[in-house]
Amino acid sequence: MKLSSIGERAVINNLLSIIRKSFPISDVPLGDDAAAVKFGDQWLILKIDGSSANTSKYEFMDWYDFGWRIASSAVSDVVAKGGFPLGIVSSIGIPADYDDSIIYDIISGVTDFASTLNSYVLGGDVNESLNDVWLDIAVLGTARKFIPAVGLQAGDYLHVTGCLGLSAIPYILHFKKVDPTPWMDVLKSIWRSVPPLDFLKIASNVKASTDISDGLASISRVLSLSNVGLEIDEFPLCSKCVEFAEELNIDLSNFIKFLGEEFQIVFTFGDGLIDPRYPRLGRIVKGNGIVIKGEKVDFGWEYFRGYH
Q1: What is the CATH number of the domain that holds 165?
Q2: Buried b (16+ CB within 10 A) or exposed e, 93-111
Q3: Which residue in 178, 243, 247, 278 is deepest, having the highest Cβ count within 10 Å?
Q4: Hey, which residues does 126 pair with through a beta bridge?
Q5: How many domains does the chain have?
Q6: Helix, strand, or coil here: 117?
Q7: Span 212-240, average pLDDT
Q8: Res 185 pLDDT > 70
Q9: Are residues 288 and 201 in the same domain?
Q10: Same domain assignment for residues 284 and 183
């Protein structure tokens, strides 16, 4: 069966059924955002993430930002599980006829990103690829408490660590073939974002969490794990999204549909508790799926299928 016909999520579910026989007995469910093992009184959290330039590098994005973005993607999953990233290793593939400066720019982005977090780059691997550049990032983190993605219950409120929608801006610029020059400062701020480490200050009180790197598809996956739905009354769009929409005369719904690579964390304290310091995304309800202002929606990013 072609990958494009089944999508990334179906592939992952099939892979989980294969590796389940080798998965250790653990309090951490197979298929969470990151893997974890108990070590003394702490959790060791391990995550690997990556992408190719063909699927993740816009034509107006430089290689430094490509490296930073991939590293941020991997680290955000560790932070979402309550972990601080201790160190990063990378594996890069590049065709032999490409310029060597690409490698140095990518790893400079990874290194500067790690330094911003007071984390470390511990080494890596360089490989020859056939016709595309790819980068994988593995992260080791530690946590006092591992926060699972499961456990949502009707009545819980979902919070998010920041406003959403900025990641749709480069996609819209690319899709509509708009000159990105007036928006380069905004684009740089998106690509060089840092996972919300302040989340770790409240992690001990969080019941369940995930990052939102695949847009609403990330939330849908977590909802399905707990067999619940989500009602959203007002989506917490960033003010820059409204400004961008007005200037290009586009509908604000595009920012919800094309969410992805936000690297914000969606979480709940459970028991109906809220925290006014964080935007409230919505309320967990019985049923399934996501409803925004009374309309059921089902879209997000997925490898092999793209936005759907």
Answers
A1: 3.90.650.10
A2: bbeeeeeeebbebbbebbb
A3: 278
A4: 92
A5: 3
A6: coil
A7: 91
A8: yes
A9: yes
A10: yes
Domain check: are 109 and 172 in the same one? no
Stretch 215-241: mean pLDDT: 91
pLDDT in tens, 229-269: 999 988 999 999 999 999 999 999 999 989 888 889 999 99
Residues spanned by the domain of 25: 1-29
The tokens for 163 are 């406003």
Q: Which two tokens stand for residue 77?
A: 């999953």
- pTM for this entry: 0.94
**Does residue 149 form part of some domain?**
no
Q: Are 189 and 115 in contact (CB under 8 A)?
A: no
Instruction: Check whether residue 208 and residue 249 sit in a common domain.
Output: yes
Q: CA 8 to CA 17: how far, in whole Å? A: 14
- N- to C-terminal Cα distance for the chain? 19
Residues 84 and 99 in one domain: yes
pLDDT (0 to 100) of residue 308:
64
The chain-wide mean pLDDT, for the chain, equals 93
| Range list of H helices, 81-183 | 101-116, 168-175
Assigned domain for 150 exists = no
Q: With contact defined as beta carbons under 8 Å apart, do 139 and 83 qualify?
A: no
- What's the one-letter identity of residue 123? G
The reply to whether 124 and 198 lie within a common domain is no
Amino acid identity of 106? I
Q: Is 113 exposed, middle or buried (0-12, 13-18, 19+ CB in 10 A)?
A: buried
Side-chain-side CA neighbours of 261 within 13 Å: the count stands at: 28
Measured CA to CA, the distance from residue 46 to residue 139 in angstroms comes to 6
Give the C-alpha separation, 10 to 8, whole Å: 6
Q: Kindly compute the dihedral angle of the four CA atoms of residues 141, 146, 149, 150, in this order, to the nearest 10 degrees.
A: 160
More confident residue, 305 or 258: 258
- Is residue 149 pLDDT above 70, yes or no? yes
Does residue 7 fall inside a structural domain? yes
Task: Determine, yes or no, domain membership for 94.
Answer: yes
Query: For position 129, which CATH number holds?
Result: 3.30.1330.10
